[in-house]
TrEMBL record:
GO CC term, one of those recorded: plasma membrane
Topological category with respect to the lipid bilayer: Multi-pass membrane protein
Similarity section: Belongs to the TMEM198 family.
Chief place where the protein resides: membrane
Stretches for region Disordered: 223-258
Protein's UniProt name: Transmembrane protein 198
Transmembrane segment boundaries: 20-39, 46-62, 74-93, 98-119, 125-145, 152-176, 196-214
Subcellular location: Membrane
Entry-linked InterPro entries: TM7S3/TM198-like_dom (IPR025256), TMEM198 (IPR040236)
Species this protein is from: Patagioenas fasciata monilis
Record domain TM7S3/TM198-like: where: 24-214
Keywords carried by this UniProt record: Membrane, Transmembrane, Transmembrane helix
PANTHER family with a match to the protein in the record: DUF4203 DOMAIN-CONTAINING PROTEIN, TRANSMEMBRANE PROTEIN 198 FAMILY MEMBER
Amino acid sequence: MEPSVLPCAPEPRLSYEPVPAALCALGSVFGLVCGCFGYRCFKATMFLSGLLFGSTVIFLLCRQERELQLSLEASAAVTAAIGLLCGLLTVLLRAVGLFATGLLLGLLVATAALVTVLPPPPSPWVTAGMLLGLALLCALLALCWPKAITILATAAFGAAVVVVCADYLAEGLVLVAHITARLQLAPARALCWHEWLLLSAWPVLSILCVLLQWRVTASGFSHRDAPHSRWQRPQQPELKCRQSPAPPEGTHRCRTPR
């Protein structure tokens, strides 16, 4: 009689594809940098928020639109182009960048709430309403408190990237597949203890990144102190005034610099 195999016993992966493994390694480094220095690199964070938001929306639209019949390469090209435009827009318009950053934070929080709640939502409208509601709420809060929301968003996003990369290296994106199934209200098996452990690492890493930014990397720094370009810097003519050796009473001469 063969011994029974525990369904929740973690099975280590013995082989990895080189390209996805290298991308996961780079993604882990990027997630740590974003989580620890997100607010310090304010313009890069704004560009990343616009790039992610624009590319995700356009890619989903391209994949759902059956009449266009675009290939994967064409969809990726359109997605990259629109994502770059959205990234430039969020860099040039600070309010738009903060709004996109708040949307990113709201979507992450709503996804975590929908995944961890035990009874799944009875209707897809509940899922969509929760995602949209929390995203808009965090976007509006980002316009009121830009520093706090930007720190929270970059810490949560960086921690999420690290957890996803660890999920690929450990189990081949099993946790990501479970989250996708829960968001689509599809049947999904219960998570095992090691998958719950990996999922619980996200809030722990997020809190550590928030504390690191608030106390160290973002301390004493404000996005309003960013240097302006020479086109945006206000130019005011300065007059160099020089007193004459023997000026008349109550008069002086000013000379405009050439």
